[in-house]
């Protein structure tokens, strides 16, 4: 018996949970590295913060795409 066949419930919810792992790790990396960069070069705080927020927005867009795609492909 396949492991996937033993899973019951809405597979869209499971797919979104798996799709949220990548952006979650990405956001952690973005802000962790951003804090390190600000600590090393405090005079560039505004530039680094701008780049952090841009990276955060693009990474969160992946999470939103991961939320929408299972529902679009479910046919319902």
From TrEMBL:
InterPro entries from the UniProt entry: ATP_synth_csu_bac/chlpt (IPR005953), ATP_synth_F0_csu (IPR000454), ATP_synth_F0_csu_DDCD_BS (IPR020537), ATP_synth_F0_csu_sf (IPR038662), ATPase_proteolipid_c-like_dom (IPR002379), F/V-ATP_Csub_sf (IPR035921)
Swiss-Prot/TrEMBL keywords: ATP synthesis, Cell membrane, CF(0), Hydrogen ion transport, Ion transport, Lipid-binding, Membrane, Transmembrane, Transmembrane helix, Transport
Gene3D superfamilies hit by this protein: F1F0 ATP synthase subunit C
Domain of life: Bacteria
Keyword Kinase: no
Bilayer-spanning residue ranges: 14-32, 53-73
Residue ranges constituting the V-ATPase proteolipid subunit C-like domain according to the UniProt record: 14-70
Family membership noted in the UniProt record: Belongs to the ATPase C chain family.
Function per UniProt: F(1)F(0) ATP synthase produces ATP from ADP in the presence of a proton or sodium gradient. F-type ATPases consist of two structural domains, F(1) containing the extramembraneous catalytic core and F(0) containing the membrane proton channel, linked together by a central stalk and a peripheral stalk. During catalysis, ATP synthesis in the catalytic domain of F(1) is coupled via a rotary mechanism of the central stalk subunits to proton translocation.
PANTHER family for the chain: ATP SYNTHASE LIPID-BINDING PROTEIN, MITOCHONDRIAL (PTHR10031), ATPASE PROTEIN 9 (PTHR10031:SF0)
Protein's recorded name: ATP synthase subunit c
Organism of origin: Actinomadura vinacea
